[in-house]
Amino acid sequence: MIVAPSLLSANFAHLARDIDRLNEAGCQMLHLDIMDGHFVPNISFGSSIVKTLRPLTKMVFDVHLMISDPLKYLTDFVHAGADYITFHYEAVDNPFRIIKAIKAFGIKAGISIKPNTPVSVLEPFLPFLDLVLVMSVEPGFGGQTFMMGAVPKIKQLKALKDQHNYNYLIQVDGGINNQTVLLVKEAGCDIVVAGTYVFSHPNIKEALANLE
Ligand code: DX5
Ligand code: ZN
Questions:
Q1: How confident is the model at residue 139 (pLDDT cuts 50, 70, 90)?
Q2: 173 tagged catalytic
Q3: Of the candidates 206, 146, 199, the residue with the CA atom closest to the CA atom of residue 173
């Protein structure tokens, strides 16, 4: 199980220190929540912050675009050092176009669905995806409660993956702690995102170890 801490819950006055703590804890992946105040009712940070943090760590940069018109900002996040770029199914008219554009840069392509969006809408795109992100909270804020509806969606994605031999990683994001991580692991999830649980814990290394 890969644990990707969400930078949204880090201390924005001490980002370099928090990145160092994740490096010391041996963290492999960093989840970067990009919010535009339009697709979601919150504004977080943009590609310039991602670019600033890039040289500080070898962690895989997992960029979660909770923005309208992701195509418009794709190049900025590629140049900032993203390794995965995940956009929202609900934010675009033509997911194929975005997936193709991301992969043309040699970056891994992910798509995310909100709690009320069924897995079935993703079926045409599954053969081309490197990652599918199941939101277990309404996107926009850290610190929310895990929504159980995510569990059957993970199971469904796992079944489709096994049935068709697809390559995508299954990632879950929102309200992950040492209890909910067991539910999503059992359902077939490969990566969990955790913000509050990791950064509110007195010892980041211990928090990560608990989830792993
Ligand atoms: C919510 C973000 C999540 C969130 C996770 O829109 O996509 O990544 O930061 O935070 P917790 O783990 O506190 O729910
Ligand atoms: Zn996220």
A1: very high
A2: yes
A3: 146
What confidence score (pLDDT) does residue 198 get?
A: 98
The whole-number average pLDDT for the span 119-147 is 98
* Contact present, 122 and 89 (Cβ < 8 Å): yes
Q: Decide: 144 and 174 in contact? Cβ < 8 Å.
A: yes
Q: Is 190 in the pocket of ligand 1 (CB under 6 A)?
A: no
- Supply the Cα-derived Rg of the chain in whole angstroms: 16
Q: Would you say the CB of residue 180 lies under 6 angstroms from ligand 1?
A: no
pTM over 0.90: yes
Residue of 7, 31, 32, 193 to mutate, ligand 1, most atoms within 8 A of C-beta: 193
Model pLDDT for residues 153-167, shown as the tens digit of each residue: 999 999 999 999 999
Q: Which residue is it, tokens 């890969």?
A: 2
Domains annotated on the chain, with CATH: 2-211 (3.20.20.70)
Q: What is the pLDDT of residue 174?
A: 98
Task: Check: CB of residue 153 under 8 Å from CB of residue 159.
Answer: no
What is d(CA 38, CA 69) in angstroms, rounded to the nearest whole number? 10
Tell me which of 18, 33, 36, 190 is the catalytic residue. Answer: 33
